[in-house]
Amino acid sequence: MRFDDDAALDSSEVQDNRGGALGGIPGGGKTVGGGAVGVLVLIASVLFGFDPGLLGTGGTGTGASTGTGSGGSSASASASASDLAAECRTGADANSKEDCRIVAVVDSVQAFWKQTETAAGKSYTQAPTWLFTGSVSTGCGDATSEVGPFYCSADDKVYLDLGFFDELSSKFGAKGGPFAEAYVVAHEYGHHIQDLSGTISRGTGQGENSGSVKLELQADCYAGVWAHHATTTPDPGSGKPLITELTQADINLGLDAAAAVGDDRIQQKYQGKVTPDTWTHGSAAERRQWFSTGYKSGAVADCDTFA
């Protein structure tokens, strides 16, 4: 995956709070995540039978699912809030720095959905990505890195500790890489589209046929739809695509990441058996399938996992 070296990045949609604390107001929004339940959260939920979606929300949210815990920031997550705008100016920066790559992916994903929603006669509300380390207070309540990347419907933000990407490889066996990171970000923005459409309220329950699983698989499909259009979506500033190259090898890394956080893969690894009646995100095969469906067709209409 490569970005146009000369493209101008808009860092205003990525709010850098690493090392700080967001003074959010706990509310009743829904938190939905892109990976699998954090290792400790998963093990505890298996042993004690509680809803892992309630962890990290201060007991005030209605978290239908969570992401994979990171417990810390990555080595490249070193920029302060003021540094982000100064360091992430062009596509060349995105090609060389992880922080700036996240900025570029957020720009691309939001440009695509704004264009798509506008073409469909709908309005699109921008949803910033909030970078944090350790813990954060959100509109859905307090959360820690243990819940991994997630979207909060109460404040319309995506929350991300970049350390998650290290654990995606080290704990869950994904090959990683720039597009694996892009897949995770695009999945979370899929939840934002579900929030705008009202679909997010259908993501409830556990089990392989639950609303929670269907919601997560649809977000995977939406990530694939964005990937299909990534190299043709014009950047609002220049009118040219921000992403200039996306190879099959990149897509394969995205598929690999999707499979790595399948419920069956994680359950087999950490509890030694697969229990489909507790699934909240779907199997490895299903996650690959729905990302592929979106990528191959590029059509939002083909992502109706609830049908």
Automatic annotation (TrEMBL):
Please state the protein's primary subcellular location: membrane
Indicate yes or no for the key word Coiled coil. Answer: no
Q: Would the keyword Cell division be found if you checked this record's keyword annotation?
A: no
Q: Which SUPFAM superfamilies match?
A: Metalloproteases ('zincins'), catalytic domain
Q: How does it sit in the membrane?
A: Single-pass membrane protein
Map out region (Disordered) in residue numbers.
1-26
Places the protein is found: Membrane
Key words of the record = Membrane, Transmembrane, Transmembrane helix
The protein here is known as Neutral zinc metallopeptidase
- Origin organism is Streptacidiphilus alkalitolerans
